Amino acid sequence: MLTLDIQPRNAADSPEALRIKGVVPAVFYGPKEGSTPIAVDARKLEHVWKAGGQTSVITLEGVGEKKETLIHDVQFHAVTGRLVHADFYVLEKGKKIKINVPLEWVGQAPAEKAGHIVVKALHEVEIEVAPAELPHNLAVDLSKLENVGDHITASQITLPPSASLITDAHEIVVSVTEFKEEAVEIAPAPETVITTAKTEEGTPAAEGAPPAADDKKSEKSAGAPKAK
User: Which pLDDT belongs to residue 17?
Assistant: First the structure.
């Protein structure tokens, strides 16, 4: 279980001033807890966030009694990517919580090795579970997928003993479809078009053809000197 030291935050403390000091403004609240502003060391909060994310119970210490919480929401700086704010949801003792838990893909599908396609339809499922048994993720064994049409439903995912599934049990989490190559259409070669021109008599003549013999004689006659 992860632990985080917190400090009370005064309304006069501006968020920017706190961040300059290496402190992240945050808040905790719950069904029986009013919204309480707090301050958290930036480095420690980033460490806890990377280690636990939104699916690990985090114990807050330093303001009254210890509180078991979940990180409900976080905000990051648009440029630096640093964590700039966090919301903690306080859990009720002895009560289960509803939460979306991410899926972890384990192994490799024999169907994928055979060249088929493994389609992952869901990446998280919703469950109700005791905080002490809250899983960081839920494993999905892909090695069970051998043939086209094989699939795994939400009901086949192994849950902690105290957990019950809220997501539809028949919802398909991952399945195998057949890989089909698309036929490539080859465009036909363009047709060659021969353009012809008509002679004075109306007979078509090929482009670039030499002038008729009669025409040559006429040209010579026209250009020859007259006899005296």
Answer: 86
